[in-house]
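Problem 3 from the worked examples.
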Amino acid sequence: MLLRDVEYGDIDAYVRMRCDPAMMAELGGPLPREGMEAKVRRDVRRAEAGTDWTKMILPDEAEPDVVAGTVALWSHGADAERISEIGWMVLPEFQGRGLGKQGVRMLLELARDDGRWGLIHAFPATANAPSNGICRTLGFRFLDEEEVPFAGRVLRTNHWAIDPRTDLVRDRRPADPRA
């Protein structure tokens, strides 16, 4: 698996993730198709500037055009209340393979090594068992249930936080005895 920065050609993946009723069920429903080009352009600009990290999840390095989803890290809020937030989406045909968890882990490791993000928050919907499971298994701490704004909607979420410098759980799989 590989993470790469979002590119202008990722519009189709954005549409599949953000405009599909099933993909957006936990996020208040699909977003309108119009505006996706602007969203991709904005994300590319922010990735190029280094202010946000929007990474596309590529399940196979040998197939760089196959996108399984996205994982992103960004900061928002007023100076005194500024927080770093992580979010992810995995397309249906790639779900259940651990790609979301692996992508989140990889981005948290990059954030740990970068050192500027501090405490990182995640806000999966309370009913989103797979995303809450990712938070739990990677070492996020559950803080509370909260209502958070998203795309003009208010969502009921679980608020998780992790300091990747100290809290990121190492992979719990047994070591390969052949190694």
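Problem 4, a separate protein:
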Amino acid sequence: MNVSRGLPADLPTDLKTIVAPYYFVPGPSKWPLLAGVSMLATMFGASGWVNGAAWGPALNLCGIAAMLLTLYFWFGDAIGESEAGQYSQRIDYSFRWSMSWFIFSEVMFFAAFFGALFYARQISMPWLSDLDHKFLWPDYNGHWGNTGPAGVVEPFQTMGPFPIPTINTALLLTSGVTLTIAHHALRAGHRAKTAIWLFATILLGATFMGFQAYEYMHAYSELNLKLTSGIYGSTFFLLTGFHGFHVTVGAIMLSVMLYRVLRGHFTADHHFGFEGAAWYWHFVDVVWLGLYVVIYWL
């Protein structure tokens, strides 16, 4: 049942959000089911693709497209409900807790990858290079970036911090500043200033991704550094690649927020959609600082 029917239809959106006394519960929705089916198709397609099945690529791409369409309409419904004044302050609290737990899950996600890197560098490699294993691999040394105990990995060069990783660090740190300026402008009611600084943040994120794509091409063509380059190559591309994926998702989120800012959806007091995207972007910034130190310097 839609409990918002008791509110006057001509009540301003801001006032609806403030006075709504209920906790809005949406009716039955088809989007969760469609999202599940889309993810299932995506994973089946991916498994078929890597195993050489002819139907794998098509099913994988169809699943991804279906998931993107589902998210578009699902979030569109949520935005429509918000703009209709159906969300009270209680819903705002729920969104904040939900976003907090989501970011916490992302922290654990990257913690697992950092943990794998730590285990490989600080436990496995010293163990394989100790005196007991010299009889099996006499030429093996435990330095990071080696070609493995048996020498089965093609020789490669490791990736240093200059110049692209350092430039990308400056880009992400600057994007955090521009996003904070945009947030303060929104809280002050300066919509045009918010849009300008938010666009600058998105542009910095896109530039970051461009430099990372160039870094990958440089790694493959000039350093012979690939995903198959032992534990160094796998952890390098796993950590930086998943972070790049998160930057892409964050840029898409901020682009949606920019569209909503231009449409006048947010007010100085009610703009958690913007804040949630900003939280995510700052999280991406912090993760990159860890990657920059651990991957490129240590």
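Solution to problem 4. The helical segments are 13-19, 31-50, 56-83, 89-128, 164-187, 191-222, 230-263, 272-297. The first helix runs from residue 13 to 19.
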